[in-house]
Write a structure and sequence with these properties.
The chain has 350 residues and is an alpha/beta fold. The protein contains 14 helices and 13 strands. It starts with a helix and ends in a 14-residue tail after the last helix.
């Protein structure tokens, strides 16, 4: 199968991912399920030829040196996020198809309180969840909402750039690590002098990046970023945990003041086909700020359950609302619940 045919097949099947590995047929992921294509296995030479065609020339040396490289590309009007990486059988390639049209926050099913949060003059808004759960799409949707409804200067710092944004009412500038800036911390230090209102930071990977992000969130900038955690409350522990123990108390204090909220996302098979978003939202209320400052993050979930009127949403409540609206099977919802809450339903919902 030619590369063009493979990409066309993936688009026709509404796949989210394409996986190419020597010794196996190409595979596509559709609605979360992996499906090998009915074609002969790829040989090593063919896979390497496909990778050579797709990896930008400037990134090929990095692939040879580091055995893996992340990049983005556009092919026949479709944009992809990709990683080429070395395996026992040779070079493999994972492609993520990026939506050409991003739905509105309401269409995606994001909590309505997020519209208020992205209009705040400063603070930190985190999106968490496993890989492939729609974090980048949610952030792109909120940036587009700002682009249509506000007049702000937005800077994105990504590795690689995923969604391409053209300014409408906002001025939007996008920087790619390794292409336009040396590192995430360097980009954040430079951004202070670039007069942004909103900053999208692709990922917070280390203490240096977290420190710079918190400083920006405290000094008149709205900063959005991502973490890989299983729920909203874990995000607080993950950020604090990248620092040595002697610095953690000060970081908790800083986070209790700078944090706006944490969204945790899960994409689940919808009853109508496709996937539906279950989203948990932790807001930094007065009570939540106290729990973060005192290191009592094990009580954050209870605070979310007790203060739904503030706009906070637990994963259990989000799942039950989707079941009540006929968008999600009850059995699927129960499998997605945290183990502690399996079999329980939110009071007041069917």
């Amino acid at each position: 199968m030619k590369l063009e045919e493979l990409l066309s097949t993936a688009a026709e099947r509404r796949a989210s991912d394409i996986l190419l590995t020597p010794g196996a047929p190409p595979a596509v992921r559709v609605h979360g399920q992996l499906h090998p294509l009915q074609t002969p296995p790829l040989d090593r030479a063919l896979t390497e030829e496909i990778v050579r065609r797709m990896v930008p020339e400037a990134q090929r040396e990095r692939l040879r040196r580091d055995f893996a490289v992340d990049f983005a590309l556009e092919f026949d009007s479709q944009r992809y996020r990709a990683q080429a990486y070395s395996t026992r059988r040779g070079i493999a390639l994972a492609l993520r198809l990026l939506p050409t049209v991003v739905g509105s926050p309401e269409q995606l099913g994001l909590p309505s309180a997020l519209i208020d949060l992205v209009q705040r003059p400063q603070g930190l808004l985190l999106f968490t969840g496993a890989t492939g759960q729609g974090k980048s799409t949610s952030q792109a949707s909120l940036l587009q909402w700002l682009n249509h409804n506000t007049r702000k200067h937005i800077i994105t710092i990504e590795d690689p750039i995923e969604f391409v944004h053209d300014g409408e009412q906002c001025l939007i500038e996008q920087r790619e690590v390794g292409e336009h800036v040396a590192s995430f911390p360097d980009a954040l230090r430079q951004t202070v002098r670039e007069n942004p209102d909103v900053i999208l930071l692709g990922e917070m990977r280390d203490a240096e990046t977290v420190t710079a992000a918190l400083q920006l969130a405290e000094t008149g900038h709205l900063l959005m970023s991502t973490l890989h955690t299983n729920d909203a409350a874990q995000a607080v522990d993950r950020m604090v945990g990248v620092f040595p123990s002697e610095a953690q108390e000060a970081v908790r204090m800083q986070l209790s003041l700078a944090l706006l909220g944490v969204v945790n996302q899960r994409l689940l098979p919808s009853r109508g086909g496709g996937r539906v978003l279950a989203a948990e939202l932790l807001l930094n209320t007065f009570a939540v700020g106290n729990l973060i400052r005192e290191g009592r993050t094990d009580q954050l979930h209870n605070a979310m359950e007790l203060d739904a009127e503030s706009g906070m949403v637990t994963l259990t409540r989000s799942l039950d609302a989707l079941v009540a609206r006929g968008m999600l099977d009850a059995a699927e919802a129960d499998r997605a619940r945290p183990r502690l809450f399996q079999g329980r339903r939110t009071p007041g919902l069917p």
